[in-house]
Design a protein that fits this description.
Elements (H helix, E strand, L loop, with lengths): L2 H18 L17 H8 L8 H7 L5 H14 L3 H9 L3 H20 L3 H14 L4 H13 L3 H14 L5 H13 L6
């Protein structure tokens, strides 16, 4: 082959490698700076919020200080099935910050309940209710979870409380009434 063809091949190869350079991580590149908020921290550790990796994740990447970091840390523990640790994290906050942490925790737990994971949702919703006893979202989901899992007594308590604090006449109220009627535990029972 002629030298011109070799040269053209090397130029072409160089151009291809140059074009692909943005897609290769640089060996010396520093890690992206972590955000200062709990949501940025949670985005980084979310994949480790499982029973196998949660302890390593918490040890290697502690959450930011404050109720927001604590709420996300509690959510991570809860997603890993460690409700007792999630509870400890929220209880460690000053009393005036616990309800706010529970609200933020609920924003992570609510999609679990909406997805229909009754085994995971029930304990998470009951945890929210420890700090926000009138959270209509947590009351509804706790009641529905307990109903689905066969705990009629707890389901009745939570759904009747839900009907007392949630006044909008919508599908949520209709479904709560329907479940209570199926259980023979009407609104006033």
């Amino acid at each position: 082959m002629s030298r011109a063809l070799y040269l053209a091949a090397f130029v072409y190869l160089g151009a291809c490698l140059y074009a692909l350079a943005p897609f290769r991580p640089a060996a010396h590149a520093a890690a992206a700076p972590a955000g200062t908020g709990g949501s940025a921290w949670f985005a980084q550790v979310r994949a480790m919020c499982n029973p196998v990796e949660v302890d390593v994740g918490m040890r290697n990447r502690p959450p930011p200080a404050g109720y927001e970091g604590s709420a996300y840390q509690a959510a991570c523990y809860a997603l890993a099935g460690r409700i007792y640790q999630a509870r400890e994290v929220i209880r460690a906050l000053p009393p005036g910050e616990r309800a706010g942490a529970a609200d933020l925790f609920l924003s992570i737990a609510d999609p679990v309940a909406d997805a229909g994971d009754d085994r995971a949702a029930g304990p998470m919703m009951r945890l929210v209710l420890e700090f926000r006893p009138d959270s209509y979202i947590a009351l509804y989901h706790a009641g529905m979870s307990e109903y689905a899992l066969g705990d009629r007594r707890s389901a009745g308590l939570h759904l009747r409380h839900f009907l007392r604090v949630y006044a909008a006449e919508d599908g949520w109220r209709a479904r709560a009434r329907e479940v209570l009627a199926e259980m023979g535990a009407g609104e006033g029972s």
